[in-house]
Structure formats: C-alpha cells, structure tokens
Amino acid sequence: MIRRRLCFPCLCLGMLMASWRVFAAAPDASSPQIFAPGVISGPAHDSAPAFTADGDTVYFSRSSGSKSIILVSTRSSSGWSSPVIAPFSGPWNDLEPTMAPDGSYLVFVSNRPAKVGGAPVEGSYQGSKQTGGNLWLVRRQGQGWSAPERLPDTVNSSTSTFAPSIAADGSVYYMHPQPSTGKFRLFRSQYRDGRWEAGQPLPFSDGLVSDVDPAVAPDESFIVFSSGRKPERGMDLFIAFRDHGNWQSPVWLGATVNSEGSDAEARLGPDQRTLYFSSERTVPVQLPRSVAQATVDTARQNAWDNGNYNIWYVSLAAWLDARR
C-alpha cells in the first residue's frame, strides 16, 4: 500500500521507491529511537529538526498533502511543548529549517514569491512540475526573528533549491536537480567577504543518482546525506568524511540505521554527534494480540506510528570515533 506523500523532493522520492516499512531493529543503544512521540513526531509528516545550541528549542517541518509549515517547540522539565507556528512561517509552504552553528540566523525553504506580488515558486524535478522552493534567511533579533530574506541567485540558481545546511564559516550546502538527468545533486556555496559565491557540486555527487538532504558538521569534517546509490535499498543515509580538504567516498550507515525504504532529512543535534532524520518505519505488531495490546497499538498509531515521516535519532559515535 503506497502512502500519500507531500510533493516535495525527499517525500516524492520515498513514494517512488517504497511502500510499507517496519522498524525491524531491536531498540538498543545503537538503534534509532523515536523523537518526542505524539508531540513533535506526530500523525503528519514531521522532519528536519533545527536545534538551538542549548538543545532546548527546536524548529521543524510538518507536512500533509500539499501543505507544509515550520513549527517551533521548547523543552522544559516536563518535556517538549505543543508545537506552534514559527513567527516567520504560515502564509506559504515552508520547510526544512536549519540553524547557523552560532544561532544568529536560520535558513529555510519556501515557495513564497521571489519578489513581492509575484507568483509562488514552481519547481521541476523527478520528471514533472512540483511545488518549488528557494532558500530564505531570518536573522535572530532578541527573542524573535527578522523578516525573511531570499538568498542570492548564486545559491538559488533554480526554482528547485532545497535542503540547506550551514557550516561555521557561513557556507551553505543544499541540493537542486541536475538538468541533464533531473536527479538531485549536492552543492556547496562558499561564504566569503559578506556574500555567497556560486554553488559548486560536491565531488562525490554526480547527478547520476539522487543525493539529497545534506547535514554538514560545522567544521565541514563530515557530512551525512541520503542517496539512491548502492546498496539501492531506497533512499538511505550515508556519511562522508573530508580529509585534508578532500571529500572521501561516502559510507553507508548500515541496516540498523536505515530501514528498507526512505530515510532522509538528515540533521545534526547540538552535540554534533547525534543524527536526527526522518523515516517511515513503524513499530512491529505481533499477531495475534490481546484487545488490551490492540488498544495500546491503536493509540500509538493515532499519535504517530502510522507510516508517515517521523523524526528519529541515533548516535554517530561509532563512525566518528572510528575515524579518529
């Protein structure tokens, strides 16, 4: 049974490549865990958490059908608060927030018009017209945010520019389609002398297979992203390290982290060692079951466990420590 997905890039890729998933790995220290079930991971598509440095505030995307919005939640001793609409989101389809490492600004994707009074952005990828996107920036102003500013055309070089990630020096990583193949490719725009230079493709991302959703470490020592490359289980998570300024070949994060279908929207937590990502995996149900267990399972399904994207997290310690 194919799940209905929002027609934004990584959700569309998931629809093309997979159907029902089961969270098959036994929960242990090395297995992904669900993030804030029923609050942040809810019954809609939830993805792309962007944390403040103290880890107590998170911005994230919530999508359903053709709609997407950015929500914000804060953490207290009693847990995460009920999410509310971020002050810079609402009128347009907004998604994929990412926080600058110093917290001074946030970049997100929106289909809002490039110019006041213009038409919403329409994109083209996966062989058809889709909801488009450009990268926009809001600056921290006290406890609030500035009005959104569109990043320049050196970054927004197409109407299908998605999935920003920000390095410590202000350089931005992102994706947009390779014109010759229509598949997504990863790019980096160097921030220098107060401006973003023309984006350059990452050397391991050639546009022959789709690479999506980069999450780069602030020092650019490693990057996590999703790809349709081998082992070709769907959209899987990979990690690549940079050695003396050169990116090494991506490494698959394995069958414990990855499910059999779509695992995408990588983000790094405030400690830079925890990976947050979105997955359609579900908790397995053992049949036959008691009525009491069916009641528990149904409550969980109503709260979040329904095959839509939820946010999961897992430690990257095994990969990062092995690299050292």
Blueprint of the fold:
Blueprint: H1 9-17, E1 33-34, E2 45-51, E3 57-64, E4 67-76, E5 79-80, E6 84-85, E7 94-99, E8 105-110, E9 122-125, E10 128-131, E11 134-141, E12 144-145, E13 149-150, E14 162-166, E15 172-177, E16 184-189, E17 191-192, E18 195-196, E19 200-201, E20 211-216, E21 222-227, E22 236-243, E23 246-247, E24 251-252, H2 254-257, E25 263-268, E26 274-279, H3 291-303, E27 310-315, H4 317-323
Antiparallel strand pairs: 1-27, 2-3, 3-4, 4-5, 4-6, 7-8, 8-11, 9-10, 11-12, 11-13, 14-15, 15-16, 16-19, 17-18, 20-21, 21-22, 22-23, 22-24, 25-26, 26-27
Please describe the structure with a list of short key phrases separated by commas or semicolons:
324 residues, Neuraminidase, five-stranded antiparallel sheet, 4 helices, 27 strands, 40% strand, globular
Q: C-alpha Rg, in Å?
A: 19 Å
Helix % is 10-25%
Number of DSSP-assigned strands = 27
CATH third-level topology = Neuraminidase
Question: What does this protein look like?
Answer:
With 324 residues, the chain is mostly beta strands. The protein has a single domain, classed as Neuraminidase (6 Propeller). 10% of the residues lie in helices and 40% in strands. The chain is built from four helices and 27 strands. The strands form seven sheets. Strands 2, 3, 4, 5 and 6 form a five-stranded antiparallel β-sheet that branches. Strands 7, 8, 11, 12 and 13 form a five-stranded antiparallel β-sheet that branches. The chain is globular and about 65 Å long. Residues 1-7 and 14-29 have low confidence and may be disordered.
